[in-house]
Amino acid sequence: MKSAKNIVAGNWKMNGLVASLEEIEALATLIDTSAAADCDVIVCPPYTLVCSLAAMKKQKILVGAQDCHVAVSGAHTGDISALMLKDAGASHIIVGHSERRADHGETSALVHAKATAIYIEGLKAIICIGETEAERDNNQTEEVVLGQLKESVPDDATPENTVIAYEPVWAIGTGKTPTVEDVAEIHTAIRKALINRFGDVGAGFSLLYGGSVKPSNAKELMTAKNVNGALVGGASLKASDFNGIIEAYRK
Ligand SMILES: O=C(CO)COP(=O)(O)O
Protein backbone atom coordinates (compact mmCIF):
# COMPACT_ATOMS: atom_id res chain seq x y z
CA MET A 1 0.00 0.00 0.00
CA LYS A 2 1.50 3.31 -1.09
CA SER A 3 1.26 6.04 1.52
CA ALA A 4 0.05 9.53 0.66
CA LYS A 5 2.48 12.24 -0.37
CA ASN A 6 2.60 15.47 1.66
CA ILE A 7 1.64 18.66 -0.16
CA VAL A 8 1.55 22.31 0.85
CA ALA A 9 -0.46 24.26 -1.73
CA GLY A 10 -1.12 27.98 -1.87
CA ASN A 11 -4.34 29.38 -3.32
CA TRP A 12 -3.82 33.06 -4.07
CA LYS A 13 -7.54 33.47 -4.97
CA MET A 14 -8.21 36.87 -6.64
CA ASN A 15 -4.98 38.36 -5.35
CA GLY A 16 -1.65 39.03 -7.00
CA LEU A 17 -0.24 41.41 -9.58
CA VAL A 18 2.88 40.95 -11.69
CA ALA A 19 4.87 42.54 -8.84
CA SER A 20 3.67 39.77 -6.50
CA LEU A 21 5.94 37.33 -8.33
CA GLU A 22 8.69 38.80 -6.14
CA GLU A 23 7.15 36.66 -3.39
CA ILE A 24 7.88 33.59 -5.55
CA GLU A 25 11.52 34.65 -5.86
CA ALA A 26 11.63 35.08 -2.10
CA LEU A 27 9.88 31.75 -1.49
CA ALA A 28 12.27 29.92 -3.82
CA THR A 29 15.22 31.42 -1.93
CA LEU A 30 13.74 30.41 1.42
CA ILE A 31 13.12 26.85 0.17
CA ASP A 32 16.64 26.62 -1.31
CA THR A 33 18.35 27.90 1.82
CA SER A 34 16.31 25.85 4.34
CA ALA A 35 16.49 22.18 5.21
CA ALA A 36 14.70 19.96 2.70
CA ALA A 37 10.97 19.66 3.38
CA ASP A 38 9.16 16.34 3.00
CA CYS A 39 6.38 17.83 0.85
CA ASP A 40 5.56 19.09 -2.62
CA VAL A 41 4.97 22.84 -2.82
CA ILE A 42 2.33 24.16 -5.22
CA VAL A 43 1.36 27.78 -5.85
CA CYS A 44 -1.96 28.52 -7.58
CA PRO A 45 -1.94 32.19 -8.61
CA PRO A 46 -4.75 33.87 -10.58
CA TYR A 47 -4.90 32.94 -14.29
CA THR A 48 -3.10 36.17 -15.21
CA LEU A 49 0.08 34.97 -13.50
CA VAL A 50 0.13 31.26 -14.37
CA CYS A 51 2.32 31.71 -17.45
CA SER A 52 4.74 34.07 -15.71
CA LEU A 53 5.03 31.81 -12.68
CA ALA A 54 5.74 28.80 -14.92
CA ALA A 55 8.30 30.84 -16.87
CA MET A 56 10.23 31.41 -13.63
CA LYS A 57 11.04 27.67 -13.76
CA LYS A 58 11.39 27.27 -9.99
CA GLN A 59 12.03 23.56 -9.74
CA LYS A 60 10.76 23.21 -6.19
CA ILE A 61 7.54 25.18 -6.79
CA LEU A 62 4.83 23.48 -8.83
CA VAL A 63 2.37 25.66 -10.71
CA GLY A 64 -1.37 25.37 -10.23
CA ALA A 65 -4.54 27.18 -11.25
CA GLN A 66 -7.80 27.80 -9.40
CA ASP A 67 -10.49 26.51 -11.75
CA CYS A 68 -11.14 25.42 -15.34
CA HIS A 69 -13.99 24.89 -17.77
CA VAL A 70 -15.23 21.39 -18.65
CA ALA A 71 -14.67 21.91 -22.39
CA VAL A 72 -11.31 21.92 -24.17
CA SER A 73 -12.05 25.05 -26.24
CA GLY A 74 -14.97 26.90 -27.80
CA ALA A 75 -17.46 29.72 -27.35
CA HIS A 76 -17.20 30.21 -23.57
CA THR A 77 -16.34 33.85 -23.07
CA GLY A 78 -14.19 34.46 -20.03
CA ASP A 79 -13.50 30.79 -19.36
CA ILE A 80 -10.22 28.89 -19.41
CA SER A 81 -9.74 25.20 -20.25
CA ALA A 82 -7.51 22.62 -18.63
CA LEU A 83 -5.65 22.35 -21.95
CA MET A 84 -4.91 26.10 -21.86
CA LEU A 85 -3.64 25.80 -18.30
CA LYS A 86 -1.44 22.87 -19.27
CA ASP A 87 -0.16 24.96 -22.16
CA ALA A 88 0.57 27.80 -19.72
CA GLY A 89 2.63 25.45 -17.55
CA ALA A 90 0.24 24.35 -14.79
CA SER A 91 0.37 20.83 -13.39
CA HIS A 92 -2.49 21.13 -10.86
CA ILE A 93 -5.95 22.73 -10.98
CA ILE A 94 -8.16 23.40 -7.96
CA VAL A 95 -11.83 22.56 -8.57
CA GLY A 96 -14.90 22.78 -6.36
CA HIS A 97 -13.57 25.45 -4.03
CA SER A 98 -16.37 26.58 -1.72
CA GLU A 99 -16.05 30.12 -3.07
CA ARG A 100 -16.86 28.82 -6.57
CA ARG A 101 -19.64 26.62 -5.22
CA ALA A 102 -21.11 29.69 -3.43
CA ASP A 103 -20.34 32.50 -5.91
CA HIS A 104 -21.02 30.56 -9.12
CA GLY A 105 -23.47 27.90 -7.99
CA GLU A 106 -21.08 25.10 -8.88
CA THR A 107 -22.46 21.67 -8.05
CA SER A 108 -20.56 18.51 -7.26
CA ALA A 109 -21.68 17.15 -10.65
CA LEU A 110 -19.94 20.07 -12.36
CA VAL A 111 -16.84 19.60 -10.20
CA HIS A 112 -16.81 15.94 -11.27
CA ALA A 113 -16.94 17.00 -14.93
CA LYS A 114 -14.13 19.49 -14.42
CA ALA A 115 -11.97 16.85 -12.74
CA THR A 116 -12.56 14.58 -15.74
CA ALA A 117 -11.49 17.41 -18.08
CA ILE A 118 -8.32 17.78 -16.01
CA TYR A 119 -7.54 14.04 -16.23
CA ILE A 120 -7.96 14.14 -20.02
CA GLU A 121 -5.09 16.65 -20.16
CA GLY A 122 -2.97 14.52 -17.85
CA LEU A 123 -3.08 17.16 -15.11
CA LYS A 124 -3.91 16.76 -11.42
CA ALA A 125 -7.15 17.92 -9.81
CA ILE A 126 -7.25 19.35 -6.30
CA ILE A 127 -10.88 18.65 -5.42
CA CYS A 128 -12.27 20.74 -2.55
CA ILE A 129 -15.05 19.65 -0.19
CA GLY A 130 -16.32 21.07 3.09
CA GLU A 131 -19.36 21.92 5.17
CA THR A 132 -20.84 25.32 6.02
CA GLU A 133 -21.21 26.58 9.56
CA ALA A 134 -24.97 25.85 9.51
CA GLU A 135 -24.33 22.28 8.36
CA ARG A 136 -21.77 21.83 11.11
CA ASP A 137 -24.17 23.22 13.72
CA ASN A 138 -26.75 20.70 12.45
CA ASN A 139 -24.27 17.84 12.95
CA GLN A 140 -24.24 17.22 9.19
CA THR A 141 -20.48 17.60 8.66
CA GLU A 142 -19.76 13.98 7.78
CA GLU A 143 -22.89 13.55 5.66
CA VAL A 144 -22.17 16.73 3.64
CA VAL A 145 -18.45 16.11 3.24
CA LEU A 146 -18.77 12.45 2.26
CA GLY A 147 -21.65 13.32 -0.08
CA GLN A 148 -19.52 15.93 -1.86
CA LEU A 149 -16.62 13.47 -1.98
CA LYS A 150 -18.76 10.79 -3.61
CA GLU A 151 -20.31 13.12 -6.18
CA SER A 152 -17.27 15.26 -7.00
CA VAL A 153 -14.59 12.57 -7.36
CA PRO A 154 -14.71 10.60 -10.65
CA ASP A 155 -14.36 6.80 -10.72
CA ASP A 156 -11.03 7.10 -12.54
CA ALA A 157 -9.48 9.22 -9.80
CA THR A 158 -6.11 7.92 -8.59
CA PRO A 159 -3.60 9.23 -6.04
CA GLU A 160 -1.54 10.33 -9.06
CA ASN A 161 -4.23 12.51 -10.65
CA THR A 162 -6.24 13.66 -7.61
CA VAL A 163 -5.69 15.46 -4.32
CA ILE A 164 -8.57 15.96 -1.89
CA ALA A 165 -8.79 19.19 0.11
CA TYR A 166 -11.11 19.36 3.11
CA GLU A 167 -11.94 22.99 3.77
CA PRO A 168 -14.67 23.75 6.30
CA VAL A 169 -16.32 26.86 4.84
CA TRP A 170 -16.57 28.57 8.24
CA ALA A 171 -12.81 28.25 8.78
CA ILE A 172 -11.84 29.95 5.51
CA GLY A 173 -10.40 33.43 6.04
CA THR A 174 -11.91 33.65 9.53
CA GLY A 175 -8.99 32.74 11.75
CA LYS A 176 -11.16 29.94 13.18
CA THR A 177 -10.06 26.33 12.82
CA PRO A 178 -11.55 23.03 13.91
CA THR A 179 -9.74 21.25 16.72
CA VAL A 180 -7.02 18.81 15.71
CA GLU A 181 -9.33 16.01 16.92
CA ASP A 182 -12.15 17.24 14.65
CA VAL A 183 -9.79 17.47 11.69
CA ALA A 184 -8.47 13.96 12.37
CA GLU A 185 -12.02 12.60 12.66
CA ILE A 186 -13.28 13.96 9.35
CA HIS A 187 -10.04 13.16 7.51
CA THR A 188 -10.25 9.61 8.81
CA ALA A 189 -13.85 9.39 7.56
CA ILE A 190 -12.70 10.67 4.14
CA ARG A 191 -9.85 8.14 4.09
CA LYS A 192 -12.24 5.29 4.96
CA ALA A 193 -14.66 6.37 2.21
CA LEU A 194 -11.79 6.41 -0.32
CA ILE A 195 -10.61 2.94 0.75
CA ASN A 196 -14.18 1.62 0.56
CA ARG A 197 -14.51 2.96 -2.96
CA PHE A 198 -11.02 2.48 -4.42
CA GLY A 199 -9.64 -0.35 -2.28
CA ASP A 200 -6.07 -0.17 -0.97
CA VAL A 201 -5.32 2.58 -3.50
CA GLY A 202 -7.55 4.84 -1.39
CA ALA A 203 -4.78 5.02 1.19
CA GLY A 204 -2.55 6.84 -1.31
CA PHE A 205 -4.65 9.96 -1.92
CA SER A 206 -3.18 13.11 -0.36
CA LEU A 207 -5.77 14.68 1.97
CA LEU A 208 -5.14 18.38 2.59
CA TYR A 209 -6.70 20.50 5.30
CA GLY A 210 -7.58 24.11 4.41
CA GLY A 211 -8.99 27.00 6.41
CA SER A 212 -6.97 29.59 8.36
CA VAL A 213 -3.73 27.60 8.23
CA LYS A 214 -0.88 29.79 9.49
CA PRO A 215 2.74 29.21 10.53
CA SER A 216 1.57 29.17 14.16
CA ASN A 217 -0.96 26.32 13.76
CA ALA A 218 0.44 24.42 10.76
CA LYS A 219 2.58 21.92 12.64
CA GLU A 220 -0.26 20.89 14.93
CA LEU A 221 -2.83 20.59 12.12
CA MET A 222 -0.41 18.76 9.82
CA THR A 223 0.29 16.09 12.42
CA ALA A 224 -3.43 15.20 12.72
CA LYS A 225 -4.21 11.67 11.59
CA ASN A 226 -4.80 11.34 7.83
CA VAL A 227 -3.75 14.93 7.13
CA ASN A 228 -1.16 15.03 4.34
CA GLY A 229 -0.74 18.75 3.98
CA ALA A 230 -2.47 22.08 3.66
CA LEU A 231 -4.35 24.22 1.16
CA VAL A 232 -3.49 27.74 2.22
CA GLY A 233 -5.21 30.99 1.26
CA GLY A 234 -4.17 34.24 2.93
CA ALA A 235 -0.91 32.95 4.39
CA SER A 236 0.29 31.79 0.96
CA LEU A 237 0.55 35.38 -0.29
CA LYS A 238 3.64 36.17 1.76
CA ALA A 239 6.75 34.08 1.16
CA SER A 240 7.80 34.13 4.81
CA ASP A 241 4.37 32.97 6.05
CA PHE A 242 4.05 30.27 3.39
CA ASN A 243 7.55 29.06 4.16
CA GLY A 244 6.57 28.99 7.83
CA ILE A 245 3.82 26.50 6.94
CA ILE A 246 6.18 24.38 4.81
CA GLU A 247 8.34 24.32 7.96
CA ALA A 248 5.88 21.76 9.40
CA TYR A 249 7.48 19.23 6.99
CA ARG A 250 11.12 20.00 7.78
CA LYS A 251 13.00 17.74 10.15
O1 LIG B 1 -9.80 28.74 1.04
C1 LIG B 1 -8.67 28.48 1.43
C2 LIG B 1 -7.68 27.86 0.53
O2 LIG B 1 -8.26 27.37 -0.61
C3 LIG B 1 -8.24 28.82 2.80
O3 LIG B 1 -8.16 30.20 2.91
P1 LIG B 1 -7.46 30.85 4.21
O4 LIG B 1 -6.17 30.13 4.42
O5 LIG B 1 -7.26 32.29 3.84
O6 LIG B 1 -8.40 30.63 5.33
UniProtKB/TrEMBL annotation:
Sorted UniProt keywords: Cytoplasm, Gluconeogenesis, Glycolysis, Isomerase
PANTHER family, A to Z: TRIOSEPHOSPHATE ISOMERASE
SUPFAM superfamilies: Triosephosphate isomerase (TIM)
Organism for this UniProt entry: Kordiimonas pumila
Keyword hit for Hydrolase: no
Compartmental location: Cytoplasm
Primary role: Involved in the gluconeogenesis. Catalyzes stereospecifically the conversion of dihydroxyacetone phosphate (DHAP) to D-glyceraldehyde-3-phosphate (G3P).
Gene, per the UniProt record: tpiA
Active site: 97, 167
Enzyme class, UniProt record, top EC level: isomerase
CDD domains: TIM
Family: Belongs to the triosephosphate isomerase family.
Record text on subunit structure and interactions: Homodimer.
Protein name: Triosephosphate isomerase
InterPro entries given in the database record: Aldolase_TIM, TIM_sf, TrioseP_Isoase_bac/euk, Triosephosphate_isomerase, Triosephosphate_isomerase_AS
Catalytic function, reaction form: D-glyceraldehyde 3-phosphate = dihydroxyacetone phosphate; L-erythrulose 1-phosphate = D-erythrulose 4-phosphate
Pathway field: Carbohydrate metabolism; erythritol degradation; Carbohydrate biosynthesis; gluconeogenesis; Carbohydrate degradation; glycolysis; D-glyceraldehyde 3-phosphate from glycerone phosphate: step 1/1
Cross-referenced Gene3D superfamilies: Aldolase class I (3.20.20.70)
Residues reported in the UniProt entry to bind substrate: 11-13, 173, 212, 233-234
Entry EC no(s): 5.3.1.1
